[in-house]
Write a structure and sequence with these properties.
Elements (H helix, E strand, L loop, with lengths): L2 H7 L5 H24 L9 H12 L22 H6 L21 H21 L6 E5 L3 H15 L5 E5 L4 H9 L3 E5 L2 E3 L2 E3 L2 H11 L4 E7 L11 H11 L3 E4 L7 H13 L4 E5 H5 L6 E5 L2 H10 L7 H42 L13 E5 L9 H11 L6 E3 L4 E4 L2 E4 L12 E5 L6 H23 L3 H11 L1
Parallel strand pairs: 2-3, 2-6, 6-7, 7-8
Antiparallel strand pairs: 1-9, 4-5, 8-9, 10-14, 11-14, 12-13
Helix pairs in contact: 1-2, 2-3, 5-13, 6-7, 8-9, 9-10, 13-15, 14-15, 15-16
Subcellular location: Cytoplasm
Catalytic activity: O-phospho-L-seryl-tRNA(Sec) + selenophosphate + H2O = L-selenocysteinyl-tRNA(Sec) + 2 phosphate
Organism: Denticeps clupeoides
Length: 480
């Protein structure tokens, strides 16, 4: 309804009622106008009515929704199922063009506007979360691993003679495969044990650069968010090394947006040294379906270069999902989620520590990991299969996300054998259980996890108590 239609409506319905309706619509339009002017996440979240009005306005700007449109091309935004059309708000053309994921589509002004706005709003959130000097970012419809691969392929054009990527070890398959898929040889740097924590071996990184030659190294591939007892890499020191040797630096920040510590490390690394790009997952940071990531950096030209490396058009679904989510939450709503996550991390830490003590275990001391926790399982180590059984018991009791890590496991990925796989070290001294306080976790999640873990440990101790007097003692103390 535009102004002319409202005037015509006054001939049918009382003008006072129509004016009231017109004012109500202007309220929605004012929110949309501010978004278009500023390109920032609104401070307060929008209602579903405002969001749907906005998306419908965008959709009618795409040619597949033009009244009387005659399409004779091979891609005309045709959809056979009305359910599919509704699921995508009739925004069918996707984003980008065949040669550039960020390009404007002549047939899809609405979808192109959606893409540009989403990237702008997401950049605002990255700055809000702590990386204030980020210059540019874009949403890509691939998860973190493939998005890292895209970064490495872009760097290949800048460093055509390079064949190695230096990588402080993180036991997550997609990180390793992202480098192999891009055609490079990962140089694995083993972590060093400091107390219970596994930290970056800076001396080993420097030795490898000297050994291989800086000109033969595509980049350094570091990590922020990770499973304890590994902690975020020493980003500031690594960034300084990269700047000194003129080596690009790509950071895997998979679920680090939700952590002020991880974001601070990236900001500081860029300030004192060199960080070319940092990549993060949409689903892990914004509670949207799996399938999207954010590639960001401090050089607008390099981020644009990465976006142009993406071949073909792309799905708009990840962009649509994260834009709807951020408009619903608003900046204040997202800040609240970040604050609640941090508070519940402390709560989970206290509860897990108390439970560990009851069973003769302990919460590993990993103060530099702001998201993940680890509880030792040393007393189960001597009983074959007990540790993996604990993992199975938790899963069947609907405790998802917790994982148990045994000692001495070997895993071969793309020809490289990792000893002590899942523990980020060839010889970590303890088996352990991981739990994380990630965005969206609730007090009920913590309470149920601790309750079910308690029952599982009690059950396992009873099964093994007959063969170990120490186990029997802890079971009796627990029951008393």
């Amino acid at each position: 309804m535009n102004g002319e239609n409202f005037c015509l409506s006054e001939k049918i319905v009382s003008s006072s009622y129509v004016r009231q309706g017109s004012q109500a619509r202007r309220g929605h339009e004012q929110l949309i106008r501010v978004l278009l002017e500023q390109g920032k996440c609104p401070e307060e979240g929008w209602s579903e009515a405002t969001i749907e009005l906005f998306l419908n306005e965008l959709a009618v700007m795409d040619s597949n929704n033009f009244l009387g449109n005659c399409g004779v091309g091979e891609r005309e935004g045709r959809v056979a199922s009305s359910l599919v059309a509704k699921r995508h708000y009739r925004l069918i053309h996707g984003i980008g063009r065949s040669g550039d994921i960020a390009a404007i589509q002549p047939k899809a002004a609405g979808s192109s506007l959606l893409n540009k706005l989403t990237n702008s709003v997401v950049l605002d959130i990255l700055k809000l979360a702590g990386v204030r000097s980020a210059a540019s970012c874009f949403v890509v419809p691939m998860a973190t691993g493939m998005s890292l691969t895209l970064c490495f392929l872009t760097l290949r054009h800048r460093r055509p003679g390079a064949r190695y990527i230096i990588w402080p070890r993180i036991d997550q398959k997609s990180c390793f495969k992202s480098m192999v898929t891009a055609g490079f040889e990962p140089v694995v740097i083993e972590n060093v044990l400091e107390g219970d924590e596994l930290r970056t071996n800076l001396e080993a990184v420097q030795r490898k650069i000297d050994e291989l030659g800086a000109e033969n190294i595509l980049c350094l591939h570091s990590t922020t968010s990770c499973f304890a007892p590994r902690i975020p890499d020493r980003l500031e020191e690594l960034a300084v090394i990269c700047a000194k040797h003129n080596i690009p630096h790509v950071v895997n920040n998979a679920y680090g947006i939700q952590s002020s510590k991880c974001m601070h490390l990236i900001q500081q690394g860029a300030r004192v040294g060199r960080i070319d790009a940092f990549v993060q997952s949409l689903d892990k940071n914004f509670m949207v379906p799996v399938g999207g990531a954010i590639i960001a950096g401090f050089d607008e030209d390099f981020v644009e270069e990465i976006s142009k490396m993406y071949p073909g058009r792309a799905s708009a679904s990840p962009s649509l999902d994260v834009l709807i989510t951020l408009l619903t939450l608003g900046a204040s709503g997202y800040r609240k989620l970040l604050s609640e996550r941090k508070e519940l991390f402390c709560h989970l830490s206290q509860e897990l520590s108390a439970l560990a003590q009851q069973y003769g275990e302990r919460l590993l001391h990993t103060p530099h990991n702001p998201i993940s926790l680890a509880m030792s399982l040393s007393s189960l180590q001597t009983h074959g299969g007990a540790i993996t059984q604990l993992g199975s018991m938790l899963f069947t009791r609907q405790v998802s996300g917790a994982r148990v890590v045994q000692m001495g496991v070997e895993q071969t990925i793309s020809g490289h054998t990792f000893r002590g796989f899942m523990s980020h070290s060839e010889s970590y001294p303890y088996p352990y259980l991981n739990a994380a306080s990630a965005i969206g976790i609730t007090c009920d999640d913590v309470a149920l996890c601790i309750k079910r873990l308690d029952k599982c440990l009690k059950s396992l101790r009873r099964e093994t108590a007959g063969t170990d007097k120490t186990f029997c003692k802890y079971v009796l103390i627990k029951e008393l």
